[in-house]
## 1
Amino acid sequence: MAFTKAKAEQAALKVSMYGPPGSGKTFTALLVAEGLARAAGKRVAFVDTEHGTDFYALPAPRSHHPEAFDFDVLHTRSLTDTLRECQALRTDTHAVVILDSMTHLWAAAIEAYRGPKTKAGTLPMHAWSNIKRPYKALMTWAINCPMHVFLLGRQGNEFTEDEETGEVKAAGVKMKAEGETQYEPHVCLRMESVKPVGKGSKHATAVPTAFAEKDRSGILQGRLIEFPNYDSIAKPLLGLLGKSQARFEDEEEVAARDAEAIAKAERERAAASRILLAKFEARLTKAEGLSAVEKIGQEIAEAKRTLTGADRQALIDCFRSARDRETDPAEMVERAAQQNAQTN
């Protein structure tokens, strides 16, 4: 893997939308999706966890879009059913997928846990990796698939802990789902039903409004969009899309590759450490005289960082033995006698 020249590798829009009940999430998603599907000459697939689309499949005297929306729906709160059916969608039939709501699908992932809980009745830390795995699989599919995807969720409070007092305070709002859900897509819209203020506003109708909290293209970033629809949300971004959809590895794939690379590096370091230990041990065994041992000791001090912990300790012990040998009077007398005998 190496650096390459940047290019457009996004063939489809990925949008997250969250807000309180009645803020217009479902209606807005259908408006935008309808335009995208019409432009592609294909259909919309809608995962509906609470039958929130029932009335949109019928004509009604709505102030906007009184005619019925035309889409295919899957009614389920099952995470595994959602993933299986989404993976079975064909790109020659469907151009847009709406998942409404991610809040229910995340709750389904948590409810599927059947292991033991803590004394306080909460889920243990080790359980979360298994809980997140199927949810992350759905997120990976949503980001990688070559279809436009809308992730809808309910709004919840975000809390933070004061570092000095330890007091927990509300820090803002976020999508009620797994922590990174709203930030994974290209665009994040916070929906709100805004009622006009001022003279004559008492009987005014609230206006569905999208606040563009995030937009990687920079076109919508920071904008406040009243009555959001295909023309104001999707159409400005379509010209930036490429022909191929980039594939992002999921966390388990990345973790497995990194773990293997780290393990390989550790094996190579351990092998090099053993070779270096053997060389120093051989030199210390043959060294004669305290000065020779201490000279090798200086080399050891410079090289010990490349040794593993066990090999480093073994070499320190070997050095100490060699130094003690060269300072032992009996050993020195015995060596002198041997040298004299060889000379004579």
## 2
Amino acid sequence: TLDFKMEKNNIAYIHLYSFNQKSVFKLYKAAISLSFKKPDGIILDLRNNPGGYLEVAVNIASFFLDKDKVIVKERFRDKDEQVFKSSAIGLLKKYPLVILVNKGSASAAEILAGALKYHRNISLIGEKTFGKGTVQEVKELKGGSQLKVTVAKWILPDGTEVGKGIEPTIEVKNGENGKD
């Protein structure tokens, strides 16, 4: 779910692979470790992160932000909105941060990247993200089959629809053979 290490020049590198039940606890452990190491900055790698649970994305964003910052809105067909805001975690909000993204960064990864770009003016480095910006529900049908129905779309704090993908601040293409 998450790898963490210190790189040269006192830079922390956090690679978040997905947003699942273990992600928040693993980031908490990394944040505690960072409080002792006092890095000069953090690289948050969200490349090829397909996303996961919305609640996990909101909790992870809360590590990097002050309380009550809008992370994302779910906008329904009737224009009703549900707003998701940061909690009072804030353990990593004082560190300079950059985020690595690519076309494999989707869903919850896009929500996190978009919220941090908006609230902290964080640079996104890499390629435009995938654009997975819908909320879906599964409906059970007769005979045991299922139908997945889109019920809402995700809107970032600046009004951008996640479904259109997020442009990087600095575009960097992967090298040959997928090498950095």
## 3
Amino acid sequence: SLFSIGREPLSAYEVLRFFWLTIRRLCIKIIGSERLDRWLWRLGFFHAKSHLLRRIWTAPDGNRITFRPMEETIFKEIYEDKVYASCHIPEDGTIVDCGAHIGIFALYAARRCPRGRVLALEPSPLNRELLQHNVRFNRLANIEIFPWAVSDHRGSGEIHFGGEYANDYCLRPTFGDKSQISIPVELRSLEDIFEEGGILRCDLLKIDIEGSELVALRGGNRALARTRQVMLEIHKLAVDPREIVSIIEAQG
């Protein structure tokens, strides 16, 4: 078979992705990536793509999560690699999830703090729709969802994403990519989030915001001073890890 040479047969998703990327490359040669992605956005392609091939997975902690194929790596991070296992999440704790995506970590944390609360921030409408679905589906009343993008100030801004990776959003075009689509969003600093959420103590601040982590931390000195643990993903092409460490250590 063309799709199983030297390996196991490809899934339906992988076959469709192969054909889609082949067609995309041909279209880019003719009209360019920026024009192609803007046309696809206006036609509702990315919305349709977000709803196709969805699956449901039952996690070891009982969460039943609806996801898209590209989100499988997040399950592996949390449930196989156990990247959050070292974090202490008290039963009555307060967790702030910046970049909640479709809610895999938010649901994981909510199971561990049944008498606490999880604030899940996700500015992408496509991701947030699935986040809201997963929270309702699991009947977790201790998760609060907000549509904000985390920055160093309050205001209005834009998040950007590229056509091939329409589930990854950031506050600036990714590393010089000019084929980005922009969506208007509300911005909040960490201090705004803590103030509006009435957070006096944060037991765990999780940050995964695609290269904007340094900007977010710069707008949160008082919030960091009230935070016991920080777990974040660092994009080394966008920020200097030493600056991240310096800001966090300065707040104890």
